[in-house]
């Protein structure tokens, strides 16, 4: 039989090497954990559209939070060669689903707002989210809706 010295409770050189290797592995894993973290998910978006009805008046629709800033110009449908103007500016925008968007409609000089924006505010859903506005000229000529 061979006479080998018994290890102490703290272990011999072999256990010291194993303990050092285990400590090194724990340190590597602890520093590698953030690299394994997943990036934050992008919130789902819904699209909000401002639809300015053809009331022949002019004005602007804006949103809070910012995103919609849509303007139409007043026009006379009975003028020779008259063509309806196409709204300009940002008439649609994406917002995170669940965001409450509030609308403000401001008529141009010589026009008035034919009722508040409809709806005056909305909670964004996935997909299509419309708001409707009609501006009329102050001379009383306004298309029916």
Strand-helix topology:
Blueprint: H1 13-36, E1 45-53, E2 59-64, E3 69-72, E4 88-90, E5 92-96, E6 100-107, E7 111-113, E8 121-123, E9 127-137
Parallel strand pairs: 1-9
Antiparallel strand pairs: 1-5, 2-3, 2-6, 3-4, 6-8, 7-9
Largest sheet: 5 strands, antiparallel
**SS element count, helices:** 1
Q: Please give the oligomerization state of what you see.
A: single chain
* SSE series: HEEEEEEEEE
Structural class: alpha+beta
Morphology: elongated
Q: What distance separates the N and C termini?
A: 108 Å
**Mean pLDDT figure:** 82
Range of strand content: 35-45%
Please give the radius of gyration in angstroms.
34 Å
Q: Main sheet: which strands, in order across?
A: 4-3-2-6-8
How many runs of DSSP E, i.e. beta strands? 9
Instruction: Work out the helicity level.
Output: 10-25%
**Runs with pLDDT <50, length 5+?**
none
